[in-house]
Design goal:
The protein has eight helices and three strands; from the N terminus they run E-H-H-E-E-H-H-H-H-H-H. It has about 160 residues and is mainly alpha-helical. The protein folds into two domains: about 5-80, Multidrug-efflux Transporter Regulator, Chain: A, Domain 2; about 95-155. The protein is elongated, with a radius of gyration of 25 Å.
């Protein structure tokens, strides 16, 4: 048997499912593993280093396609750091935009909350028999940002 880490050992080192490593091989993020005499995948330290790079890149919010592009630039002999900086600038810009959207959404929710603080006003505003809760049924402030509200919903259920 040849030396190397089996897929389960490599996966355990990084806290991954072995299927993830197979997938990374399939899409070209990791090179095809050597095989032992009995057919087991065997990985060396270069593979482990590359997998570590992929994991760290993912923690920066880089997509697998972006990581593949970075690895391709490096494989061609060029340092990909300028490309990485450009990608980080794009991520920062997207985060800034998202934060602005969320701040506007929060302001809308706070306005709605203040508008319905007085219980007597809630009772007066919700006089129709079909009304379940007038705070929801008569609101208009949040309707300006429906996509933000929908994207925010899963985080509320964590």
């Amino acid at each position: 048997m040849r030396d190397g880490l089996r897929i389960g050992e490599l996966a355990a080192r990084f806290g991954l499912n072995p299927k993830t490593i197979r997938y990374y091989e399939e899409i070209g993020l990791l090179p095809r593993a050597d095989r032992s005499d009995s057919g087991y995948r065997l990985y060396d330290e270069r593979d482990a280093e590359r997998l570590g790079f992929i994991r760290r890149a993912k923690t920066l919010g880089l997509s697998l396609d972006e990581i593949r592009d970075i690895l391709s630039v490096q494989a061609e002999g060029s340092p990909p750091c300028d490309q990485v900086l450009d990608l980080l600038d794009l991520k920062i810009s997207a985060i800034d935009q998202r934060m602005a959207e969320l701040q506007a959404f929060r302001a809308d929710l706070a306005t709605l909350r203040v508008a319905w603080t007085d219980e007597n006003k809630r009772v007066q505003r919700g006089t129709t028999s079909a009304c379940i809760c007038p705070i929801i049924e008569q609101q208009t402030e949040v309707e300006d940002h429906p996509h933000v509200a929908q994207e925010f919903e899963p985080a509320m259920h964590l």
